[in-house]
Amino acid sequence: MKESLDILLDVQKNYTQLLKQMTHLHTVTIAEWQLLQNVADGSNTQSELVSTTKLDVSTLSRQLSKLVKKDLLAIEKMGEKPTARKKYLYTMTNKGQEVLRKMDQDFTQLKDRLFSQWTKEEQNLLKILLNRLNTSFNRIEN
């Protein structure tokens, strides 16, 4: 019988593969989809997104640029002080909102299919155990 952490690795691989297939249909990457979600949730400046995503500034900047090029995000310069560091505001375009809406629908369908044979009690127990495991990992990191 496999160990718990080995099973988690298998679950993570399967989950990532399904997400890649889903995001490919909507011409975004998993990271781009997550960024769209963050912008939709109100994190709309680079500093807010760095804080929310824990990504390196240069990595985040590249990903945001790709989303702007794909016309999923719009960028607006904030402030006009020449000595101040450039600050940009990112907003969802109509195309970006549509991609996010479709991705969210597909994700909900995936979740429904995955847990269709599970009782509510089983789903709640899984959440409790995964949260407990995550807390244990956080204790090790600190």
Q: Work out the oligomeric state of the chains in this entry.
A: single chain
Into which percent range does the helicity of residues fall? 55-70%
- Helix and strand content put the structural class at mainly alpha
Task: Give the full name of the CATH homologous superfamily.
Answer: Winged helix-like DNA-binding domain superfamily/Winged helix DNA-binding domain
Order of helices and strands: HHHHEEHH
Largest sheet: 2 strands, antiparallel
How many helices? 6
The residue-averaged pLDDT reads 91
Task: Tally the structural domains.
Answer: 1
Outline type: globular
Secondary structure: number of strands: 2
Strand order of the largest sheet: 1-2
Q: List low-confidence stretches.
A: none
CATH topology: Arc Repressor Mutant, subunit A
Question: What is Rg?
Answer: 19 Å
What CATH architecture do you see?
Answer: Orthogonal Bundle
Kindly provide the name of the CATH class: Mainly Alpha
GO molecular function: DNA-binding transcription factor activity
Protein name: Transcriptional regulator
InterPro entries: ArnR1-like_HTH, HTH_MarR-typ, WH-like_DNA-bd_sf, WH_DNA-bd_sf
Pfam families: HTH_45
